[in-house]
Design a protein that fits this description.
CATH superfamily: Head domain of nucleotide exchange factor GrpE
Largest sheet: 3 strands, antiparallel
Helix content: 25-40%
Radius of gyration: 24 Å
Strand content: 15-25%
Number of helices: 2
CATH architecture: Roll
Structural class: alpha+beta
Amino acid sequence: MKRPELPDPGEPRRVDRTTQPSNVSAPISLAGEKIVSFLVQITREVWRLGSAVERCRTRGEPVSDEIAATLERLQEELQSLGLEASDPVGQTYDPGMRVEIAHLEPGGSGDLLVKRTVLPGVIWKGTLLKPASVVVGRNDAP
């Protein structure tokens, strides 16, 4: 009786797709969704950290070299993956803008402006993954 040949451990394993269950793509899809969600969160948190560092520098407060270097490295890594945070603060609000309005300030006059970004939008290689969450209000200047 001839023994079956064992595959060479150095060779890539071939998968017989005809015997795979049809629900195999569901876990892969779920994993992809979790990765996208994770990348959105990381991009937003790096933006938040960058905003905090910038506020400290504006007030003349010290920022440790380690934090500044870590922030820069995280920003570079996200950029290398094609991820960017979109902060529309200061832009004139247009109803066609792809943002979530977290709060609409009452009163004022003039154009509607994005007054504050609660959470930035996240863009991956030109595709919006998650819109920014913003506070919109009227420009008080006539």
